[in-house]
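Lab notebook, bench 4. Still working through the backlog of constructs that have no structural model yet. Next entry is a single chain of 255 residues. Request: give me the structure tokens for it.
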Amino acid sequence: MKIHVIDHNFFTPRVIASYLIENGGEPILIETGPDTTFYKLEKSLEELGYMVEDIRKVFVTHIHLDHSGAAWRFAKAGATIYVHPFGAKHLADPTKLIASARRIYKDQTETLWGEIQPIPKEHIYAIEDGEMIKIGGIKIRAVETLGHTSHHHSYLLEDLLFTGDVGGVCIENGPVLPPTPPPDINVELWQESIRKIMDLNPQFLYPIHYGKSNHVKDHLRELESRLLECTEWIGERLKEGRTEDEMVPDFVNMF
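Model written out:
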């Protein structure tokens, strides 16, 4: 088995990754990245010897557009998209997903995320927590890991865990940070997911942002510490009556 880290070069290198798994049989893609970087992903796949049509199994951890934005293109080429059940309906009808993105990113939505099209239901597989999918000689297990959002799976392959966003963000050996976009962050559920990952005891983590993490326990402890630090910081400023516009610049400068 071989795992390729594919850099989407999303405005800058080493920010968004997809993972191509070769297992001597059918290739598997984990995370599609946004539609805006689809052609970079397509070129990377071709350099590895695959056409988009060769990718028949695509797993997305959740439906945020940096993770699943290009899923419709793979579905259009014949792939099955594996996703949390609560996210499946929004891939089939992305109206609310697009509206949510517009509320956050406003007139930058298309620039950042590109085009989003509905995925036919026959190309969506709503994978349940704990369900195992056998592909060739390997098995991938869905592990429900909520907190970053209410529809998040991590994917366990042997002792490797692909963590989407619940495993945090770590760019270029920087701090491990919790990505906390609105609207449905749940700190308590996120802590439960960290405990669940600890109990799985994976050898390596593969977050989308960015690449393999070798120091799993230290990584997760730092993530939880930063999550609680951010929560306390925001709570204090809300009590002071600070607005979002006032808080955002200071929050960015924290790290």
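Notes after review: The chain has a mean pLDDT of 94. The longest helix spans residues 216-239. Flag for follow-up if needed.
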